[in-house]
Design goal:
The chain has four helices and 28 strands. Strands 1, 2, 3, 4, 5, 6, 7, 12, 15, 18 and 21 form an eleven-stranded antiparallel sheet that branches. It is globular. About 8% of the residues have low confidence.
Length: 405
Amino acid sequence: MRRLIGLVLTVIFALSATYYYLHYMVGGEDELEPPSSGLRLWDTRRKYLMKNPFPYALQDRHKWRWVPYNVTDYEFEGDAMIENDHFYLFLFSNREDSITIHAKMGDRITSGNELYKVHDTGTRNFGMGTRYTKIIKNTAEEIVVEHAGVGMRHGYPQDITTIYRVTREPWLEVRPVKNVNQQGMHAKSRLAAFMFKEPGRDILIDSKRSKLAEYVKTHPGPPYDWTDQNVHPPPGCIGLINFHRAYKYEGDFIWFLTFPPGAENHRLTYHGIHYPDPFWEDFTHDAPSVGANYAYLGEKVVIGVLRFRDIWKREDVYKPIKAGEVYTTRFKAPYAGKWRIFWCISNETFLTEADVDKGATFHFTSPKNGTLEYVVMYMYDRNEKTPKEIKTPMDVYRETILSEG
């Protein structure tokens, strides 16, 4: 009898555990999330109205409901979340912030970035939070939604509407629908760059060496009469790089904003250097920062989430170097690929390239006497030995912009 009772209790426990998993952990009441799915659309089942709501939503993950593939006629109970292996796109309700994207860094660590969609007619109207999310396509390979944020700059609600397209790849495609002509991101950093296909043309932007930084030094207190400096790219630029270096445990990675040819010439494409907006590096707080990166949204803009650890690195040196002296980096390439390297000597920047194997160091012969301040290394393209799962800025550009050219 005791054995029978024990067996019955075991069965009840197993059934209860199964129900708990299916109902709460997976998040679906009637449908199960497909196993090994790399792309999913979730209903978080809650309207998040607080600032910076993503951590709260992630804590509530056991309550999310998966929206089954091929279902498009769906009314969200809460806020929508799109997830692939590389990032989350969170379309939350809070209208004090723009919606956010969060790179997956491994070990349950994420790194967030606020995504600005703007209607700039001389007055800038930002789409904040969510008024509605409409599913256009929902498959295991592609999720497309129409999303309207709420613009209040003109004193009345105005839909700022875009299309978001997510696949299994590490990038987000944005297309305009209504009342929008600029796409931006708010990953505050010290360093950024303009990138070109041709060698020798990339331009490093260092917020601590900007005109705004020089202005701040000579004007004590907040410079209320000049808080922004917009730096526009030269013709031929194919994308804006944000060198993300927030915390040691996240690793250094790249946000990459790319666009069709011609968008670089528009007044709405630029790196925005901001004061007193700070950048964060290893828990330090400094300003000004490259506070935002913007691109003209005519046809589309693509945001690369190149979350691969140490796909770029800044090596601080601050030592004298003589003309003809060779410097070898301490940093070793974590991936085989084609790298570009900025060498900053006494406030002058030199750019070189190297096609290297995994584990290689980088070398530079100084053309002048001075102080080698720092070296910035980043993998801009792949070679025949680059792992398939690692994507570079040129991969994003080739597969999203050139593929339709």
